[in-house]
Specification:
This protein has 306 residues and is an alpha/beta fold. It has helices spanning 13-25, 38-47, 57-61, 76-81, 101-110, 153-165, 175-202, 208-213, 217-226, 230-239, 241-264, 267-286, 298-305; strands at residues 5-9, 30-34, 52-53, 66-69, 92-95, 115-116, 119-121, 142-145, 169-172. α7 packs across α9 and α7 (175-202) crosses α11 (241-264). It binds nicotinamide-adenine-dinucleotide and prephenic acid. Keywords: Oxidoreductase.
Amino acid sequence: MTFRRVAIIGLGLQGGSIGLAVQSYLPEVFTTGTDIDPVTRARAAERGLVHKVCESSAEAAADADLIIFCVPPGAMGGAASEVRATLPPGAVVSDVGSSKQAVAKALSEALPGHLVIPAHPVAGTENSGPDAGFAQLFRNRWCIVTPPAQTDLVKLSSLVTFWEALGANVEIMDPEHHDLVLAVTSHLPHLIAYTIVGTASDLEEVTRSEVIKYSAGGFRDFTRIAASDPTMWRDVFLSNRDAVLTMLQRFTEDLTALQRAIRIGDSDMLFNHFARTRAIRRSIIEEGQDDARPDFGRADHDAATS
Ligand SMILES: NC(=O)c1ccc[n+]([C@@H]2O[C@H](COP(=O)([O-])OP(=O)(O)OC[C@H]3O[C@@H](n4cnc5c(N)ncnc54)[C@H](O)[C@@H]3O)[C@@H](O)[C@H]2O)c1
Ligand SMILES: O=C(O)C(=O)CC1(C(=O)O)C=CC(O)C=C1
């Protein structure tokens, strides 16, 4: 089967990008969408993020054969319960949440009897809201799909085909494993960025203006990440608590080892460690998951999408 009518709940970065990407790459698919925020609904209509912006989730869900929840992780259950009365029984329920076990549980409990196939496009920016979305967001990015153990294989394959049409490379993964992997590749880096930017701005001897004036490349890269949406990231850490705490423990041990190497002047240890991490950056670029240019290719991207 292929999806003909897709409902998008939440018209920010992710929902808006899906809506625009569907119009670019799946022109036969009709999209409805809504957002809890009336200003976002109005802007979504102006930008044409979906074919029809609805006043409520219940209205957007009626007739959908695929519904994708694009709201913060902590809002998934509440948003799903709003479509219980109108969502057609055969519709596939999916989402884009950054954590998978907690979100899958919230969606399944809110929509008993519906097939829930969670997904997570590992694609985003530090921007949020209805102006942040763009059709190319998912191109050559991974989308991790975490189906329940006994799932409908035809519908699973339709969801995979849907994401591939938007340009993503799809990987099927166990939700528990997803949460561990993303804790280290995405959630911990954000926590570190939030910490370092907060620490620098708190330091009394380095005034706020000096932090901004003399911001070196390393610090500036952290400020980009630390500008990400506070609601979303609060929810990510609370919904993936166990995996984040496991990885944080490991990170703290490794940081302590580097701290000791600096204190005792273990130059080999420092050099070998930095040589290993440099190689990781190179392999990410070789796999096409980032750009080698100093601005990560963002200037070209911004020019192409503005
Ligand atoms: N930002 C990223 O880089 C990124 C990447 C991959 C996945 N995600 C996941 O995507 C989801 C959305 O993130 P985003 O970056 O698009 O955030 P966003 O803030 O840009 O958009 C979320 C939208 O959801 C709306 N919303 C909140 N509660 C709602 C409800 N009950 N009903 C309808 N609308 C509601 C908000 O008003 C907002 O417009 C999150 O679960 C996040 O974990 C984000
Ligand atoms: O590129 C960025 O700015 C992001 O933060 C995107 C990013 C990440 O790579 O960590 C953030 C959250 C996700 O769920 C997926 C992708």
